[in-house]
Amino acid sequence: MNAKLSELAEKLGIATEFSDGGLKSKKYNVDENVIRFLSSALGYPSANDDEINQSLDKFYNLRWQTALRPIYVRVQNDIIIDVVSPDLSNIEIEAEGSDGELKKLAYEYMKDTENHGNLYKESLRITTPLAVGYYAIKITLGGKKYDSMLAVAPEKCYDNLPQDKKIWGYAVQLYAIKSKHNWGVGDFTDLEELVKLCSASGADVIGLNPLNVLCHDFPENASPYSSISREFLNPIYIDVEKVPEFTAEDKKPLEKLLQELRNSDLVLYEKVYPLKVKMLELCFSRFQKGDDKKRQKAYKDFCNAKGKSLENLALFQAIYEAEKDKVWGGWQAWPQKYSSPQSSGVKEFVSEHKDRVEFFKFMQFEADRQFALVKEVIDSCNMKIGLYRDLAVGVGKDSAEYWGNHDLFIPSAGAGAPPDAFFPAGQRWELGAFLPQKLAEEKYLPFINILRANMQNAGALRIDHVMSLMRLYIIPDSMKGGSYVYYNFADMLNIVAIESWLNKCMVVGESIGNVPEGFLEALSSKNIYALSILWAERWNSGWGDFRQPEAYPSNAFVSVGTHDIAPLKMWWFGYDIELNYEVGLLNDLNEKAEMYHKRENDRKYLLSALDTAGVWPQDKPRSGDYIYGEQYPEGIEEAVMKFMAKTNPPVFLAQLEDIFGVDKLQNLPGTDRDKYPNWRRKLPLDLEDMKDDEHYKRCVAAIAAVR
Prior knowledge:
Number of helices: 21
Strand content: 15-25%
Helix content: 25-40%
Distance between the termini: 57 Å
Largest sheet: 8 strands, parallel
Radius of gyration: 27 Å
């Protein structure tokens, strides 16, 4: 590779080579064309030697062109900032915190002055103690004033886990909850009732799927990881009957339809969502004509607090709805006058569709109100964590987030995953990825806003694909391969720690995939918990014995599996192997036979682990080897729950699918709904009946006996 191009890539944080995450790690050299594309996308052209040299000059001169960086992200006990000026004498530094108080900061010179022509750069250590948070800083240099932001981080993320007791709870998909009152999809009232059930059972945490808003016009695009904005909630979770403007008369003509929607084993998004929207439109009309001054004020306060982000979301949804039948290809195919919120035609659109824009805001207002009621119930139950929310790694390029500020994203490219043993060609997620330098120029506010929104009402937050704090694999739209683009890992970690502390929210990092060396240690040092699952905690790289509970890591949240992994009963019978074969993810009959053979051995390993741990119910001891063709082992779900409850991690999340013997998968990665009903499968029991279910009672007792 061209030495200068390699130098430019290194300075910009573009990997020129990388290793995959397979058991037999393979090294890949990145195509020069990918490097040239990515460097240009980051603002540093590199098509030829002249452009590379100019871009290197631009990079090396960049810091000398401004007195201050846009933002300094520093840990409390080590606040160092650097300044550039022809005169470094008589520097004055003032800081204004969230309380509005302006205070003068004391500092000391670090004695490492650099020279660049007639400019000097000096590092200063702030000696005035500062609380965790954000400060607008004003620095006087040579008689001129300059502004920046100082983000002061704690040493570690927030943690309020009890030291004397391990806790447990449930991992659920909110949409999958069945109840006798809901409209065919789990809602915020169901969540309130689940909180009460959990608390009564001794549980202290409920893990949820991402709750973010999805595409209004295509409700069948139901993946909770494909949000159009990670700052706002999905209105499908609104309990329409709990909206103040709803009346009992509104429901009477719908009883037959509602019963059909409740009885369905799958969430019928194409019926449920439009029905809810229709009812919410009726409520909104009454809200507009109503005279409830308190509620009207609450709505205005909500809109003012959410500001530009809410305005952009509502605009996006209203324009998308108006254009969906005219153009194909999402917002990038819209007329130029709608190409961004600042475009010429948007103001005219708002004046003509004001009520529709306001309606989309109203749905967010009501979702936010009902979600806050869930938090009130959590507080009244004194749950130690409460909600454990899930932050998706990104948004699609056809999203309100991207449309609202597409200059913030790497153009003509998307995030994905590199080749590995499971996906030899890699994966295109088609997710927008932040431009590292632009994100810093924006003082990390887009990232901060997303963190805050998803920590709302939560005691813990799971960050999906947490490696994105350090790097993302970026694939140009026009190319097959890609490369990693690196972010300022220290800044990103410290921003997470600040928001964790300010929002009193613990942080968990999902790190399945290609994990860089030393990455997990960096998370642990910041008190970010790992994720651990039964199926991964095995010796000999997944081929040997299951680890005993005392061998599990202590700095993790633990569960049997995830929404992408077969629940216990499905795994036991190998139905997941057959499913993969049926949909074409597995094509070789010999490979299929080998997988069944391995699964038979895996089942023996699991039985042995449960025996060693002594977790079988006394009245349902193991009665055989349960070879294929025999029944499901009686009491195995209870034994597995007790086994996991005995593990070292301080938090255990039980999946209701395992307790109730569900033998179907929630999501089959690599497929869409034409092959498998992803993100639609409901739990087999109504919420109201769970507490009296024998499996539920026995599993809760098994967990409580050891945790």
